Amino acid sequence: MTTATPADRPPVDLRDPAQLLAALPYLIGFRPEKSVVLLGHRATGPGPGLDLGLVLRGDLPPREGRARQARALASRFAGSGYLGVTLVIVGGRRRPGSPPPHADFVDELAAALGDFGLPVVHALWAAGITAGAPWGCYVDEGCGGALPDPRATVMAAASTERGTVAFDSREELEALLAPRSPEALARRADRLARLSSSPWPGATCVGDAASVVRAAFDRQCRGEGPPTDEEAVLLARALKLPAVRDLCLAMAVPPDTAAAREAERLWLTLVQEIPPPERAEAAALLGFAAYMRGDGTLAGMALENALTAAPDHTLAALVKRVLDRGTPPEVLRGLAAAADPISGFGLDPVDFDADRAA
Hints:
By secondary structure, the chain is an alpha+beta fold. It is 48% helix and 12% strand. It folds into two domains: 2-167, no CATH class; 174-357, no CATH class. The protein has helices at residues 17-22, 24-28, 66-75, 103-115, 154-161, 170-174, 182-194, 205-222, 229-239, 242-250, 258-273, 279-292, 296-309, 314-324, 333-337, 341-345, 349-357, and strands spanning 2-5, 35-43, 50-59, 84-90, 120-126, 134-137, 144-146.
């Protein structure tokens, strides 16, 4: 299983290996265990510095699967303007006087990257990403020490300010997307199956459906809890309308506003409250919003959720394909900019922020 994270996130000091290792939970979205992590480096501009691009995490493979996984991971950085890759292995115990564990796998990764003309900038190991965990380097025997507390790093502070949470495990993050009540989903699936026509007149369909979403947004802001069966069914039908979905995409930008954060929470709530296949609409919106915010892990999980609910979902497939390539979110920001949220929801994000601060 792999996790891809796009190249729009708070800065991390690439010159300090301990700080880079401690930042991994905030770069990935959860604390990695028994993992291999590849961090792609791009040029920052005319100077000699490097910037962080795609961050790719995979499970440590069995010995017989190392060569195959090395080629698969390395290929994700090919032809995308990368100048080099940092390799990180998380897990295992280092014996005194020996190199860090999984050194053979690191060699295979370096060879696979070399086939694409990509050098290894650094190869690091950590027993775990926790305060005091031992870490070291595969090339320099004198490089190593004990990790600082990941929660006390500059990366942690910057991520918290942006509203990004680092979970203790991938499973804890995945649990966010689980249904709140399977019984409620079954009732709503039955009602949706029996709803043969649109709930709104054709002449006012888009406006009426947008009003349903706006009302749900207002309830979300007031913290009124999950929708009723009737509200969930109407929201499921509203989000199926392309014009309404486009208006919802517009709520993802600017990504650091209070309105965008509340909209993302609404889509998460609806992923938990709407049955498949209709759930795919809310999951795709959640994936897009998380992607705009630079949270590639949540975005990837949400998009996989959408494609599980509706394998032919065009928007989810498009965003996931772009995310998997490590493309910066700005590339898809035009999808949100093409819609005007004011016309659909009567909501200007700037005014919303001012109202919330008052």
